[in-house]
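Box S2. Input/output pair 1.
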Amino acid sequence: MGAALPKHDVFQAIADPTRRQLLKLLADGEMHVTGISEHFPMSRTAVSKHLRILSDAGLVKQRKVGRETRYSLQPEPLLELKHWLSYFERFWENKMVALKHYVESEEVDGQ
């Protein structure tokens, strides 16, 4: 049988701003839940719930070190998000090109 599907998908997992902050924090390296909790104005239990959702989506890995649980970022699932967003880059690129032309034309007119 194949691997079980994640309980949460990447899009659900990153929808919450706290979970996005957690991912940024873990990008700097592995941390234990107490150390992570110090960065947030919420209980350690609330932080653990957010970490569980990220773990369910495959974005965070946990491992036991003695009595401590340590968490680390697993960025591979973010590729799904990157691929989805890349479709829309063409719209951003068009806006940036138009802005560049506008700014350059204003500079020429203003000289």
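Box S3. Input/output pair 2.
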Amino acid sequence: MVELQAATKLDAVFHALGDATRRHMLRDLAGGERSVGELAAPFEISLAAASKHIKALERAGLVRRTVAGRKHLCRLEARPLEGAHEWLGFYKQFWSGRLDILESLLRQEDAAKSQGEDHD
């Protein structure tokens, strides 16, 4: 059951990160708290559309929204990104290993060519 909950949270994080507008909003929030209007400003979207994006970020646990009067303030909650980072880390190791093998093969090929030229 714990693994299912973790997978569901990870799915929500990747869903949230799957949209360029939301990624841009997260990047803005890394600089500090922003209002919904401030988050919407760089885009040609309504406040209602911006709020929908923010709700997706909230569902993923990436954003915490507080209300101060009529102003909705958002701040970054980076902890859920740790799970995504760990998941992607596996593939970093995978590709690093593959690239190390490729580098070795290319060095062997270069060495073989050098030896062939020396004998000409």
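Caption for Box S3: The two ends are 68 Å apart (CA to CA). The CA atoms of residues 16 and 57 lie 6 Å apart.
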